[in-house]
Every structure is written in C-alpha cells, then in structure tokens.
Amino acid sequence: MCAVVMAVQVHRLSHIAFHVRDSERLARDLSRRFRFQLCGARVTKGAKQLALRRGSAVFLVNESRFGECSVPGGLLYDVVPGAQAVDSACNISFEVKDVERATLRLDRLGCQVVVPPRPVENELGWVTYSVVRSVVGNISHTLIDRSGYRGEFLPGFVPPPCPGDGAEEREVARGPVAISHFDHITYACPRRQSAHIMDWYRRCFGFQRFLVNRSEDLNDGYVIEGDNIGLRLTAMEYWKCSEIGMSMPKIEEKKLDCKFVIAEPLANQDAGVEFFCPPSAYYTETEKWQEIMKAGQDPELLAQYNILLDSDVDDEHCKGEAKCQGPANKRYLMQTFTKPIFSEETFFLELIERKGASGFGEGNIRALWKSVQICIDQQEDKKL
Prior knowledge:
Helices cover about 20% and strands about 30% of the residues. It is built from eight helices and 16 strands.
C-alpha cells in the first residue's frame, strides 16, 4: 500500500518580508521612491516590524534586535534568517485555508517546520500562521489563514494614524507610477540547483514549469550567454487545471498571477581559481569598515569574494587621469590575490580594479596586519 501526500493548496501571495539592520531607512525608501504606504507597525524590545502596501503588493520590513528570538518580544509571522548579516528578502508568505493541515502535509513531505501553527488575535478577529523553510538559500515561507480577520494587515500590528482629510495620503498613493501587484519573484540559486528547487515546489505547492521563451530547451531551460554572462532561466507557476494550485487576487484573470523564476549561473563561467582569504576581522574592524562604506561598497559583499579595498586621499599620488576621476574620498582601489600557482608557492597573481587611485594598496598591508593581531588576541582570550 502506498500513501500519497498531496501538495498544499495555496490561496494567494500574502506579502514579501525583508530582514534588515535599519527598518526605518528601508521603509522611507519604499515610501518616498515607490510610494508604498505604511499600513501597520509593531515595535517591541526585541523587534521592529513595518508593513507597507501599494495595490495588492505588500512588503513587511523586519528588524530583529536580539538575534534569533521568537515571540513574545521577537518577530511575529516570521523568523530571523540564521546568522546572515546582510540585508535581504528572506520570506515569501502565502495565504492558505487551513494552516494546521497545510503544515502537517509539508512536514510529511520532509519540510522543516520552524514555527508550528499558532493563533494571533485582536478585537478585529484572528489568524493562524506557521513558518517552514524552503530549499532556496535562507528563504522561508509563512503560511497564514486570515479568513477570520477583517483588519487592514494582520493582528499584532497597529494601523497608522490618518491625519487631516487624507489628501496627502491619496497623492502619495497615486505616485508617478501605478504599482498594482507582484508580477513574478526570481530566485538566484547556485549551479545545478534549478531542477531540485523546481521539484520541491512541485511536490510541496503544486507548481508546474512553463516556458520563458519559445526557443527554450525543455531540459536546459532558457540559456543566456555572452562575453561576461552565462545564465540559465527556468520558470514555474501554479497548474491552472489542478486543484493544488496557487491563485492571486484576480482583477483580470491572467494578469495578476505571480510566477517564480529561477536564475542559475552557467558552470563554464567559473574557472576554478582559488583566492587568498583575508582574516574576517579585516572587514569588521571599525576603521576599515567605515572606509569601505565611505567608498560606496558593501563590507559583507567584499568579504564574500575576498576583496580588499584601499582608499587614496593624497592628491600628490594621483597623476593623469586617476586624479580626475572623483573627489579624494571616492578614489580607491579593490584588489584580491590568487593562491600560489606553483606547489613551491613562488608565484601568485593580483587582480586589481582602480577607481581613481594610483597606489598599490599600502593601507591594506596595515589593515591585514591589524586584523591578524585581532585574530591572535581572540585566540589567546579563548585559551584563557
């Protein structure tokens, strides 16, 4: 006898959640630049959460203050995405009709349930939610049943005040561009993971593949190649002829379907070169961190690719074109070093990108020495 576990029936996309270090800043950007409006806020000692809406598109901006803490005091309707330090979108929330049943199905299908079904209520009604991990990086899925709730967003969130006659809010809502909904969501995944991801969403949520382009190969997907790019695209959507489908709120039947696209780098773009890995303290040391930020770069991103950065603020060292490429605090270079090419470790290569600087990374020598000393001190402290 073979027991078959059906995929979860998803009613609609609820919202997309960000995890950031400065929730106020992102909320201001979404409001000023894209005309999203605040529709709910929740502030505790452990977290700050801001919900912003434009049309049927809703973003939930999460800022966790004490790491991976859970309700009460922590994040509601979500979890902290592990030890990740960079700001990113980490949760795609779906509305379902029965959270308990959906969570049980996903658990039987092998999904990791990180928050079991729990109720939340206020004077406007109740909801039930759970959180499961997806197979895509740090992405989680919150499942919500809000059939018993009549509020603007979700219980636990305080609606914003409505001063005046609402004219300002209506003007903001109109904005320069009419945003109505989320058209599609793209996952950037490691090589050779597209098939695994698509199979997971097919089994768990009933998604089916569709062709991105007429020339797309059924096995290889839609391949984009060029001198500096190599990308494979595959896409999936709910199966319209199946009961286990996903459907968005419909104004026009086909236009509001939210699709998922998987973007995978091609294998032949990676030549297998190994690079020198600087001490992690290089990127977290206060002066170097500030120097990288002033140059307009991301310390976490540079750390991911083992890239060093050195600013050039001395006009006397800038000659020719290098001197004309920007103000002193914007002249810098980025460099990274390969591991020795020969087994005797007698030769290596340096890759360097100049952004107006003419030096050779002298500041990095001091910064690397300082970071090594920090690592040594930390090891000594552990011994004590």
